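Entry 14. Structure prediction run on the chain below.
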Amino acid sequence: MNEKIKIALIGCGNWGKNIARNLIEMGSLACIYDPESSQANEFINKYKLPAFSLNEILLNKNIKGVVIASSAQTHKEIAIESIKNNKDVLIEKPFCLSLTDAKIISEHAIEKNRILMVGHLLNYHNVFIKMKKLIDEDKIGSIKNIRAQRLALGSIRSNESVIYDLAAHDISMILAITKELPNKVLAQSIHHNLNVGPDAISVKLSFKDGITALLNSDWMCPYKEHRLSIIGTKGSLIFDDTREWNDKLYFNPSTIKSDNTINFAPSKRIIVKKNEPLKNELEEFINAIQSRKNPITNYEEAINVQTVMEMIENNLENNQD
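Output returned:
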């Protein structure tokens, strides 16, 4: 059925090229629009795709969906124009750069009855999916603490902060586990350069049922660490995305007793079927277009993540030295 759904890709940069590859493999790529990308031209020439303008894409009734992978500051305008022209829309992370804009885009989608989805990729990672299943099965008991580390010496963006580029991933996963917004945020930041926001953040999120989450994001760290740990009363689950596939998920049954001594036990590796999260994400979008059912990372999920990002920003602004 996927070949019947035609998707336009807006933006073909470092991440957009991966989207293009997957949509081609799925038989759903209608065209690419990115006049500033040589990679876009390579795909257009190699796969004999039409060279549509943005306006031609919006007016083409055969194109049912649009994936927006352009720079973050363009997301709002392109999304709204796509929705106005009856396109279903997947916006790659970050959804947009303010909570106000997130709500405006969502209101347009609701009014036009359009699918609106955000590319919070790790929700489609089989390891995280398995992690949530084990939590639901009471593998680790009651959740006490969540720890998220996303550190690297990688792409540094001048038009968006590390909150929107890196922390968005972990905020999305944390909210998927807690199923609620935090009621308190405490944040610290480091600004290495004159970018629009922080280059490193350390955040504590507190939830009404007693769960706490500690989140660290830094795109100027000299080593790479992508790790999510869920600590419960019966043990912990650790998702380490820098390891080889079969080593990505561990269960540590060690627990802390009431007298603060530790009951140590060896960790156990949990094998999970390998998948490509981006392919899963795009399949979710296409299935949502066909079924008209909300995807996992729908506009409500996008607004919740945007809300927490704004809570972090506000806390940092209110506690400036």
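The chain has two domains: 2-120+277-298, 123-275+309-318.
Filed with the rest of this week's runs.
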